[in-house]
């Protein structure tokens, strides 16, 4: 079994347990459920930097990245740095994240927040809304076309933006549909962890112009962004490069200042 299959199998068990512990009616009572969401897609369309900065403590590919940062400080720092949005990993077992991280980020900034999760059930979209997310991620590699349609349409009914992530042509071809807002190309193969920006470059021409294009993973310098922009990318998801430092917000600030030059 590859790591993605393992994460997904564990996620099914976890979500079944969460559903039995917290009923949907309780999620819907969250004060955040009525909060008007902020569109990351619209922010990326008008930004000249397009940085989506991630809160990421550890990962299957890198083990520990940084366990010492406080999510409130990271969220405030990213907002001060001028990022377009923040991605918050909420998986506990493989990434050391939680829904509480999302809630704390929500309490600390007004940025559009992406719930970075392995979504396999509509229930997780209700959780995303209840804990303050504005955007959800759907990963084509773990979903059927019918599930992508069902989850993306449900997300839109909750006024959440949808970022659909692909890694190859087959995943892209099965996924294109009007209920998506952003098409993300993950430069990391989630089964082997190989990283190549060429993945974003080669798939870009196949992504219809109706979607904002986001390049994800393995971006560690300004040159990478400059090399992706001519391929139509308007969003750049960066985790480790900021989180591996003592001050993720400050690192993002310096990065954005250099990018603007
Ligand atoms: O990062 C991993 O090792 C990983 C492994 C398996 C599934 C997902 C994984 N990462 C999720 C992400 O998409 C990244 O956290 C995100 O794109 C940022 O990547 P990076 O800038 O390389 O930290």
UniProtKB/TrEMBL annotation:
GO MF assignments: indole-3-glycerol-phosphate synthase activity; phosphoribosylanthranilate isomerase activity
Enzyme's top EC category: lyase
GO biological process: L-tryptophan biosynthetic process
Catalytic reactions on record: 1-(2-carboxyphenylamino)-1-deoxy-D-ribulose 5-phosphate + H(+) = (1S,2R)-1-C-(indol-3-yl)glycerol 3-phosphate + CO2 + H2O
Pathway: Amino-acid biosynthesis; L-tryptophan biosynthesis; L-tryptophan from chorismate: step 4/5
Residue ranges of every copy of the Indole-3-glycerol phosphate synthase domain listed in the record: 4-251
Residue intervals passing through the bilayer: none
UniProt EC number: 4.1.1.48
Keyword annotations: Amino-acid biosynthesis, Aromatic amino acid biosynthesis, Decarboxylase, Lyase, Tryptophan biosynthesis
Domain of life, source organism: Bacteria
InterPro entries membership: Aldolase_TIM, Indole-3-glycerol_P_synth, Indole-3-glycerol_P_synth_dom, RibuloseP-bd_barrel
Family: Belongs to the TrpC family.
NCBIfam families noted in UniProt: PRK00278.2-4
Protein name according to UniProt: Indole-3-glycerol phosphate synthase
Lineage: Bacteria, Pseudomonadati, Bacteroidota, Flavobacteriia, Flavobacteriales
